[in-house]
Amino acid sequence: MRETLRRVSLGYLVLAATAVAYLVVYTSRLGRFPTSFDYLSILNTTLPLVFVAIGQSLVVLTGGIDLSVGGVVSLCVAVTAATASVPWLVVVLALGTACGALNGLVVAYGRIAPILTTLATLSIFMGLALRVLPVPGGSIPPSVRLVLTNPGTPTGLGWLGLAVAGWLVLRRTRFGMRVYAVGSDESSARAVGVPAAAVKLKVYALSGFCSALAAVFYVSTTTAGDANAGTPFILTSIASVVVGGVAFTGGRGSALGAVAGAVALTLVIDILFFAGIDPLYQSLFQGLFLVVAVLLGTVAGLVARRRRSS
After folding, report:
1. Residues 6+ apart with CB under 8 A from 10
2. How do residues 179-211 score in pLDDT, each as one tens digit?
3. CA 267: distance to chain centroid?
């Protein structure tokens, strides 16, 4: 428990430091504090990555990884933008869940390495996305946008709260405890009766569902679709998990840390923008940010272990 709290607090510390840096750069650049519109814009822009990061953290907690999140987001963005109707949103969520369940079947029952499985399905889903929406375009009903990412009212804050509440409830269920058990030691979990394969299947299905949610919120924020929209989410979701302190060995960490990491990464992009950094170098600075965050986590872990040993 103490280790989990340390990892989660790391994500919060990184978020706090990034938020302070954002305020400093923003005020020095524009000569005023951010307005409510700025905060709402950041919130709405962050929501897609928040949902993908939550799904990715569930997979990582079982000791796996889901590279196909980019493909699932792209495919669901394409379908959402191409259909542009409320009933189709249910179909999009079901589609994302089915894509994730396909990954889970291959990983859990086919016993193929997660990185190979999801890399293959990433290509499949990206190809299907281009088939559905060959060129950027499409739309989303204005009524949906008002409910999901209303630029005038903080509806996004409510959805963020629901996402956090959903994780807190899931963490305390039998399924949530089994996720940690499988990630900590799958063999031991099987020995005490935990259906590890079924847990993995559900985890990947949830990851697909979260990616589908991200796609809907993405189209709601941008008001259009792009078959390549999901590509950035592959690395940023993994980076959010790392910054949030979720262990890639599985069984340690929290999706709340990944949420904090997602918000921090979004703020980094805004910081680079207001600092006048050339967009061509944004990936470089994002990478440096990730390296520094990981190093801080490593140092914090070493300090904590030395204190316990002494």
Report:
1. 243, 244, 245, 257, 293, 296, 297, 300
2. 999 999 999 999 999 999 999 999 999 999 999
3. 15
CA dihedral 127, 131, 137, 142 (to 10 degrees): -100
Closest among 175, 211, 169, 283 to 50, alpha carbons compared: 211
Query: How deeply is 170 buried, as exposed, middle or buried, from its count of CB atoms within 10 A (0-12, 13-18, 19+)?
Result: middle
Give the residue from 41, 48, 7 showing the smallest Cα distance to 237.
Answer: 48
Any idea what DSSP says for residue 12? H
Spatial distance between the Cα atoms of 75 and 56, rounded to a whole number of angstroms:
17
Encoded tokens for 4: 């989990």
Q: What angle in degrees, to the nearest 10, is found between the helix axes of 255-274 and 2-30?
A: 20
**What does the pLDDT look like over 242-268, one tens digit per residue?**
888 888 888 888 899 899 999 998 998
The radius of gyration computed from the CA coordinates of the chain, to the nearest angstrom, equals: 19
Phi, psi of 137, rounded to the nearest 5 degrees:
160, -155
Q: CA–CA separation, 205 vs 113, rounded Å?
A: 16
300 class by beta-carbon count within 10 Å (0-12 exposed, 13-18 middle, 19+ buried):
middle
Q: Residue with structure tokens 């630029």?
A: 151
Distance CA 262, CA 244 (A): 8
Cβ-contact 80, 225 below 8 angstroms: yes
Rounded distance between C-alpha atoms, residue 274 and residue 276, angstroms: 5
Terminal C-alpha separation, the chain: 20
Q: At what angle do helices 155-171 and 174-184 cross, to 10 degrees?
A: 70
